[in-house]
């Protein structure tokens, strides 16, 4: 009898079961709703960005079964002083990309090259829509090249070509309309360029940082009486050639600060690959952030050409 009374006084197990069932039902409903969102909707784009930053939480069951993409590791340990591209994007809101704008941008790949000279340099953008001010005052991303990392990439291209280098600048959009798997798409672009141009002196994946990693302030330095954007390099520790790309990044940072003190803010390490295994002379460049103006960044790109030229000369 006492045992039966005690059992009547302990309804918690059934209540707990109902709570678990309700949570599971709510989760299933949520998953059904978000999988039906239009790909171009702001909510769907934000979810895609979160999946890109943490693909282990991907809602695609086939991707979960296959494991994370080749560029991402689920190990969360890292040594760094600020967030790299993958993590920073979770804090930003992507501009809504309209259907007519996407139609106009389908063939945005623009290659500027002169395959003669001192050696080939490849420049591309995994996150090609990243924008600077004044554009970033209203939208931190844009499918138009003007005011984005692609404009800065063109400035860097022209400055390097003026120094006699052969430069291939690819403006393919790898992050629009979705951020999810941006590095996988840019990997295909980089491999295609390498197959066309063979051995290269240097590969640059050109980004801009998020102002949130600098307390909302622009990343600047004074060079020649001008206020220009500073830069940092990101190195993925998940690459088998980590030691080589780290050493190359150190040469660039040291040369930059030797020529223009304070120009390079340092090297960021993350436990990913970022396609760095493509070359021992691969860099992921973070030039300024979305609080910097495009004019500051374009000026920096000219100084960067000096840094890269002198670094390669000393190798």
Can you walk me through this structure?
The protein has 315 residues and is an alpha/beta fold. The chain has two domains: 2-66; 85-314, Aminopeptidase, CATH 3.40.630.40. It contains ten helices and eight strands. The protein has helices at residues 2-8, 12-35, 42-53, 61-66, 85-88, 99-104, 149-162, 182-197, 242-259, 294-314, and strands at residues 120-124, 166-169, 202-209, 220-223, 226-229, 231-236, 264-270, 282-289. A six-stranded mixed sheet has the order 2-1-3-8-6-7, sandwiched between helices. The termini are far apart.
Give the SSE layout.
Layout: H1 2-8, H2 12-35, H3 42-53, H4 61-66, H5 85-88, H6 99-104, E1 120-124, H7 149-162, E2 166-169, H8 182-197, E3 202-209, E4 220-223, E5 226-229, E6 231-236, H9 242-259, E7 264-270, E8 282-289, H10 294-314
Parallel strand pairs: 1-2, 1-3, 3-8, 6-7
Antiparallel strand pairs: 4-5, 6-8
CATH architecture verdict of the largest domain: 3-Layer(aba) Sandwich
Q: Considering the protein shown, what is the CATH homologous superfamily of the largest domain?
A: Zn-dependent exopeptidases
| Secondary structure tally: strands | 8
Q: For the residues shown, what is the average pLDDT? A: 76
- From the alpha-carbon coordinates, what is the Rg to the nearest angstrom? 23 Å
Strand order of the biggest β-sheet: 2-1-3-8-6-7
Q: Roughly what fraction of the amino acids lie in strands?
A: 5-15%
Number of helices: 10
Q: Let me know the largest β-sheet.
A: 6 strands, mixed
- Which CATH class of the largest domain is shown? Alpha Beta
Secondary-structure content class: alpha/beta
Helix share, percent: 40-55%
Whole-number tally of structural domains: 2
- Overall geometry: globular
Helix/strand order:
HHHHHHEHEHEEEEHEEH
